[in-house]
Design goal:
It is an enzyme of class 4 (lyase). Catalyzes the cleavage of L-allo-threonine and L-threonine to glycine and acetaldehyde. It holds the Pfam family Beta_elim_lyase. It comes from Alsobacter metallidurans. This protein is an alpha/beta fold and 351 residues long. The protein folds into 2 domains: 239 residues, Aspartate Aminotransferase, domain 2, CATH 3.40.640.10; 98 residues, Aspartate Aminotransferase, domain 1 (Alpha-Beta Complex), CATH 3.90.1150. Helix content is 40%, strand content 17%. The strands form 2 sheets. It has a 7-stranded mixed beta sheet with strand order 1-7-6-5-4-2-3, with helices on both faces. β8 and β9 form a beta hairpin. α8 crosses α12. The longest helix has 21 residues. The chain is globular and about 60 Å long.
């Protein structure tokens, strides 16, 4: 049982079947094909408006290219202090923006607030030559703590950003899991709340290697075709990206996968919380479970072959601390996680 990440499982059957079908015959290269056109149309349907969508193979590529479209080299991107774009992308956003600064904002449970954004902006006054110039805000949804921004919270951050003339990017590596957790529409979680650009993730939720950068404003996306190519993310056999996205979105497959992953995460969270000595660090709102495990429980799980990710964070709840001999652990469920495996894992934890 490997629950260290939702990247450890393969692609889902509908995605693979779509790939096999698209693999037959010959079509236009570099995205000039029917599969890519269909995927782009389906993404516009998902967001309930005409969008400009570009497919890429990695989440890092999606985030870095999206931020580069919003931020000049002398600009600043504001995000949570533990956001993926700051901590986990090996400087890709800085490289693709040609040197922009990524500014972390502290906040509990992986989320920053409008007040935190205001305080950060005070350090970078507009028009002062010695300071990088505020350009955009990036919101992680799902956060690095497995939590979700509410629609109201996204809207308030976006309002603050727009008041200062900043664009808003949403890192949706687990976009479907966030939608399933909030029970809202893609439109409500993005452009209706003030988001300008989305990194729309499919890989963690059934894709093989497929993400999309989705713009809600054509002017912002104007040069993205060239930026993607220059950055090495224009795939020559683009129809194989398009086919993945079609297989992912068709027949609500993407949301079915996310609902399952979230449901088994909730079952796991409740099961572990009932084990003596186990404490949940944050509420389980999507498909990630963060717990403090007594050493004996962690050892039992490891001995039984259960894999989880050791974790650390500076945004734990006030007064919460991991005991010296406890293990801070992250468990991530996926569309492929079986309910009987969750039951077995909880039984092992109980001992």
């Amino acid at each position: 049982m490997n629950l260290a990440s939702d990247n450890v499982v393969g692609a889902s059957r509908p995605v693979l079947e779509a790939l096999l079908a698209a693999n037959q015959g010959a079509e236009g290269a570099y995205g000039a094909d029917a599969h890519t056109a269909k995927a782009e149309a389906m993404l516009s349907d998902v967001f309930e408006r005409e969008c400009v969508s570009s497919l890429v193979a990695t989440g890092t590529g999606a985030n870095a290219l999206a931020l580069a479209a919003l931020t000049p080299p002398w600009g600043a991107v504001f995000c949570h202090a533990e956001a993926h774009v700051l901590d986990d992308e090996c400087g890709a956003p800085e490289m693709f923006t040609a040197g922009a600064k990524i500014v972390g904002i502290p906040g509990a449970a992986g989320k920053f607030t409008p007040a935190g954004l205001e305080a950060a902006l005070e350090r970078f006054p507009k028009g002062v030559a010695k300071a990088v110039q505020p350009a955009c805000v990036s919101i992680s949804q799902v956060t690095e703590a497995g939590t979700l921004y509410t629609l109201e919270e996204i809207g308030l951050i976006a309002d603050t950003a727009k008041r200062h003339g900043l664009k808003v990017h949403l890192d949706g590596a687990r976009f479907a899991n966030a939608l399933a957790g909030l029970g809202c529409t893609a439109a409500e979680m993005t452009w209706k709340a003030g988001v300008d650009v989305v990194s729309f993730g499919a890989t963690k939720n059934g894709g093989l290697a497929c993400e999309a950068v989705v713009f809600f404003d054509k002017a912002t996306a104007e040069n993205f075709t060239f930026r993607r190519k220059r950055g090495g993310h224009t795939v020559s056999k683009g129809r194989l990206l398009g086919a993945q996205m079609v297989g992912y979105l068709q027949d609500d497959h993407w949301m079915h996968n996310a609902r399952h992953a979230n449901a088994v995460a909730s079952t796991l969270s409740e099961g572990l919380a009932a084990v003596a000595g186990v404490r949940r660090v944050w509420p389980t709102q999507a498909n990630e479970v963060f717990v403090s495990l007594p050493a004996a429980v962690a050892a039992r799980l490891k001995d039984a072959g259960v894999r989880f990710a050791p974790w650390s964070s500076g945004s734990m709840p006030e007064g919460f601390a991991i005991a010296a001999d406890d293990v801070f652990a992250r468990f991530v469920t996926s569309f492929a996680t079986r309910e009987d495996d969750i039951a077995k894992l909880v039984a092992i934890a109980r001992g």
